Amino acid sequence: MQTVLHAAAMVPLSIPSPSWSGFDIPLPWGTLRIHAYALCILAGIIVGLWLTSARWKRRGTPEGSLWDIAIWAIPFGIIGGRLYHVFSSPDAYFGPGFDGTGDLSLIPQIQRGGLGIWGAVVLGAVGAWIGCRRAGLKLTAFLDAAAPGLLLAQAIGRWGNWFNQELFGAPTTLPWGLAIDPANANFPPGMPADTLFHPTFLYESLWNLVGVAALLVLDRKFNFRRGRLFWLYAMYYTLGRVWIEALRIDDAEQITLFGITTRLNVWTSILVFVVALVIFLWLGRGGRPDPDSAYLPGREPAAEAAVEPAKDAESVTSVTSHDVDPSVSDSGSRGNLPDNQSDPGHVDEPQDAAGDSGQADKSKTESDTAATAARKAPGSAPEADHTK
């Protein structure tokens, strides 16, 4: 027992910040810096896609369609996330009050940190819509399948803030307070070097992991469709983001509404929560909906399979059908041709009686004899040979 207590006493009553934030890859023309922040974002994307892929397959979607959508959604999401961050924290890029003293070259340097989830979701959804339209699938079906994976990706990606020692909360004396290197540029000036801060990255990561489990359980129980699970995700995430964002002390755009001045992200979270709640309730009116196909109307596999036989039948008809003039039909032409010039591919139907055949041949012979005699008669004009 004493050993356990001694070991517990040795455990530091704080969360240390890492001294490692990436590594360099030597290249012929210099070095390539791989940042831990970027690795966390990449790991979150990979794990989120893994979960989304498993859920997407269960919707009966075509194999490989997830990657057709992701190739549009991911770049759009990263660009949107960066643009929102620049908009919500403009001082570093444009200077305080947009006085021009900022550094615009920092805008594309995503490896330094700074991705706003709202911009990532909005522009990422635009990219996903493009991919879904090209694949013949519904955006709402994809958003429902991707919602838990998106939250899981956020939970992992948040650890990039820990490696960058950024976006921490106010000072705290709690045993899980976060220690920040006093020499780091993000350390608040004027505070004692041993000050601990709320580890908001950890709060959000844990909140998101609980949300992933909650979304999976609720979806299995209620089988949400038509985008309702995505809006449930938006409600859950913003509910946690309000109180987590309120703890932060990093520089951010301040907005005053209803006499209350707070961070832009807090107001954005409240607005998104209200909109998501209204849409969630509106989509759920009328009780539980019927099973919803992931395909756009007319792009279902059954519909496409029905179109192909119809096209095949049309081609066969166009090949085998001919516009035949009754006056020059095959049967009529064969009747005017000698036996040795008739259609070689034609097979005569069996005669009903041998006597009918003999009588027909006799009548034909008599007719030919009469025609020959008429042509040989004096004063008669020769006719043109119109049967070939």
What does this structure look like?
The chain has 388 residues and is mainly alpha-helical. The chain contains 13 helices and 6 strands. The strands form 3 sheets. Strands 1-2 form a two-stranded antiparallel sheet. Strands 3-4 form a two-stranded antiparallel sheet. It has a two-stranded antiparallel ribbon with strand order 5-6. Strand 5 (254-257) and strand 6 (260-263) form a beta hairpin. Helix 3 runs antiparallel to helix 5, helix 6 (139-157) runs antiparallel to helix 8 and helix 9 (228-247) packs antiparallel against helix 10. The protein is globular. The N and C termini lie far apart (116 Å).
What string, H for helix and E for strand, traces the elements in order?
HEEHHHHHHEEHHEEHHHH
Total strand count, please? 6
The helix content is 55-70%
Quaternary structure of the protein = single chain
Name the structural class: mainly alpha
Fraction in beta strands: 5-15%
Radius of gyration: 39 Å
Q: Please, what is the average pLDDT?
A: 80
Low-confidence stretches: 316-358, 370-388
Number of helices: 13
Net shape: globular
Q: Major sheet: order of its strands? A: 1-2
User: What does the largest sheet look like?
Assistant: 2 strands, antiparallel
Measure the end-to-end span: 116 Å
